[in-house]
Design goal:
Elements lengths: L7 H5 L23 E9 L2 E10 L2 H10 L11 E5 L8 E9 L2 E8 L6 H10 L3 E3 L2
Antiparallel strand pairs: 1-2, 1-3, 2-5, 4-5, 4-6
């Protein structure tokens, strides 16, 4: 069964959420409008079961920053989100879906979870009108 969690930034094009994660600390290099990265990790029983990393520039940077800066989740096992200005990691990446508009760009990196393949991510990118980026 294919399970892919789609970023709210892509799903709504206005970045309404980042998966309900905990707030992290933003590095000093993430000025308004510059690149902002949100890494969302979901754990179960001490094991990472899912990771998604979102990068935004321009308008999308502001949206990723706002979505990733939500109050900490109180539900045990809820996804944990960290915001910074570093590029998303490429280790274990299956690929990314990206969209560029006149107001900025958004890229959502998906990582190996044992159930999803790079071909499935590429198919989802195509179905949502986004460009696939191989790691």
């Amino acid at each position: 069964m294919l399970i892919v969690r789609t970023s709210f930034v892509v799903a709504t094009a206005v970045a309404l959420g980042c998966g309900g994660g905990d707030s992290g600390s933003e590095s000093s290099g993430a000025a308004t409008g510059s690149r902002v990265t949100c890494v969302v990790t979901e754990m179960a029983g001490g094991t990472t079961i899912y990771t998604l990393c979102e990068e935004g520039t321009g308008f999308y940077a502001d949206q990723v920053r706002a979505a990733c800066s939500r109050p900490p989740a109180t539900t045990p096992g809820a996804p944990h989100a960290v915001i910074n200005s570093d590029p998303c990691p490429r280790a274990n990446a299956l690929g990314a879906c990206t969209i560029t508009t006149n107001v900025g760009s958004f890229t959502g990196w998906h990582y190996a979870d044992g159930t999803t393949t790079a071909d499935q991510i590429a198919m989802i990118c195509a179905q949502t009108g986004q460009m696939f980026i191989a790691p």
